[in-house]
């Protein structure tokens, strides 16, 4: 009798405490109390989730205040022009229409009548889908939205590994990274790669113990498999993720189910990418880099690694991850050295070390923007750094709060001024370019020939409303389209090409600074003159003039 009574009492106590017993966190959903007006306490998990959502939304709003729909960089032109061609024509190569035609720095004349881009098709495919749904300007919102999703995935990853409170601290540290914030507006492929890596890792951790875990692992594999189609070097990230899944699954029955789901998910985008390469370059292993003068493999070497590695490390410490980088490196060693966390530590090391070494052996020497190549590694170092601080705090809330607050404050002190400067500079530049495009829409018929220098031409070319000619050819003919012609002959040949491209009755316009027009205009020949059509001033930026041919 005594035993039955004790069980009954335990059941009553369990019912009072809730489904999880008395150790379960109190319910947090407003209105969950049966008694009207009774206060409901919120759990740490929900409080941190709400705070994380607030941080992510606030970050998106700040990014949106700096947003301007324009392409202002040579690399981003390659991605966004491919997106336009893919959305409108179902291909990523450009057909040669005129010798004066603007192509862009990242495009190569792969055949007599065709230009190919160096960059893989994965990121342009995302942009093409957004462009098809929301128009040319809508495509520019892809990076801010993907950055927001990447932050959410990063928080979920950290929450699964180190708990909600420390996950919030890691999110706060990473959201202050100036490298991350700058490249939301630079519009390269790094944000897309970052999202895919964070999504893959988050789906592994969040879905591991779910009822239909194989679906979560399939999705994780898909994101990992999509990475090489965005940036080729990210192919080094898939194998460590697969091995991590396989190692964790060894203790389960059947042990092969989750690794198989991950591998199947990864196979889908990889197969599509290989088929695309075969159709466009003649072999599944060939990419846009095959039209580069060095080919795919010639752009990496041990010599480059020995020459550039020290400079890259210095730049990463100063520009890339700041205080969290060195702490993160120590954190990875810390995790690898502990029995409870060695597997996750090994994953972080296997992701970061090979990728960074190969990236440092790239042919391009370290430059002010070179740290962007390591952007997808930055959350990994942030996670490791915060995880180590959590362990060092020994479970003491006050100590943990102090350590986290110190790292966040240092990150803000270092990161906010850098991000503010870069974002304001980009905002002014992109504001001018979008303003020029708006002015042209009002004054220049679509399909007309527009002559512009490279900075303006790359944005107009992405929009695709006009035939864009490259005024830079008159100054720097990188592809030697006009050979060794004297300048006057080159200008005359350039003018002839423009007339031919415009066709009978076609109209031609020049977008440029007044000083350039005064120098070039008289040399155009053919009885031509420049007549002011419209004017736009953005910190002494270009005028727009129409080139009109006089009657003989």
Strand order of the largest sheet: 5-4-6-8-7
Number of helices: 19
Q: Main β-sheet: number of strands, strand sense, barrel status? A: 5 strands, mixed
Beta content comes to: 5-15%
Over the alpha carbons, how many angstroms does the gyration radius reach?
Answer: 28 Å
Structural class: alpha/beta
Report the order of strands and helices.
Answer: HHHEEEHHHHHHHHHHHHHEHEHEHEE
- Give the termini separation: 118 Å
**Morphology call:** globular
* Spans where pLDDT lies below 50 across 5 or more residues: 14-40, 548-552
Binned, the helix content reads 55-70%
Overall pLDDT: 83
Characterise this structure.
This protein has a five-stranded mixed β-sheet with strand order 5-4-6-8-7. Strands 1-3-2 form a three-stranded antiparallel β-sheet. Helix 2 runs parallel beside helix 6, helix 3 (74-89) crosses helix 4 and helix 3 (74-89) runs parallel beside helix 17 (454-463). Residues 14-40 and 548-552 have low confidence and may be disordered. The chain is 61% helix and 7% strand. The protein has helices at 2-17, 44-65, 74-89, 122-138, 142-162, 164-175, 178-186, 190-207, 213-230, 238-249, 257-281, 302-320, 323-337, 342-360, 378-393, 397-443, 454-463, 487-502, 514-520; strands spanning 94-95, 107-111, 114-117, 449-452, 467-470, 508-512, 528-535, 543-549.
